[in-house]
Amino acid sequence: MQRELRQRVQPLVRWEAGLAIVLGAIVLLGTQVSSAFLTQGNLFYLCISIGEVAIMTLPLTLIIVTGEIDLSVASILGLSSAMLGYLTSHGWSVWPSFAVVLALGAAAGLFNGFLVTRVGLPSLAVTIGTLTLYRGFAVVILGPNIISTFPSRFTSIGINAIGGTFLSWSVLFFLILAVAFGVVLHLTPFGRSLFAIGLNTEAALFAGIRVKRIKLWLYVLSGIVCAFAGILYTFRLSTAVQDNGLGLELNVVAIVLLGGVSIFGGRGSIVGVVLGVFVYAALQNVLFLTSFPQRAFGIVTGGLLLVSVLVPNAGAIARRVKELQRRRLRGRAALEAS
User: Could you give the residue ranges of the DSSP H alpha helices within 143-210?
Assistant: First the structure.
């Protein structure tokens, strides 16, 4: 298994180097497109536009490394935002509301993990279902109401830079969490067990790894982190509405795959995901500066998804195609011989 892991790490390092080059090229293009690209104001706008999405990529990275998926991340963000708005509008103070919202996120993740690990349902099907389910709960909680009665000391987090820098608070939280997730994934036995699960689940079971328990807790962690992102998202907009974060799940998945995490599991790095975040944000920012129509941003996201799946796995896909062709030829030869 160690040999197989090394074989997967080497192309990942090359992918990360490629992302760094692409990021440099986008920055260079941005400076040519607009003199405002590297200004403090524009860089701050770039940060606040990607902060909450970036935070949600971190737990999803761990889940995909194990060979699973979570498409309900943005719906948990929206549900958390709705609950925060509901509680504060009904007289709750902010800190107890935070605790309830984070617990709600943990419960949503636990429900996902239970269906995947204990009931044995495919994670893709489960999280497509809960994507709609949690969004429906947000509608029930808030209805058509728009809540904007949040204390200014909290809403200022989303609209003010840190000190004299261009960094937003959400990006600062992302970078801190990225370091923590990176240490866990790459420098601990727990992280190595995640790669082992993604590489070969049966072998991981025989090695004594508690596969179901680990996956369950990963979904709980994802729910908590997405709820935290929902709190930041709400304060940035100073508004809680039923459709907060609608459609962001595709952006999250696109960034994780762009960062070199294999959709088949067993390969990925936090460094690659961090680079993917900034490549994605810089590209969107350059398109915005060129007056690229925002309604067409979905084309960019879809294109990045396809590239992120096809390019890193081109060799594996080619081998599978050749194997299918060989089987067909053998089948034809057997039929002709009979």
Answer: 152-159, 169-187, 189-199, 201-206
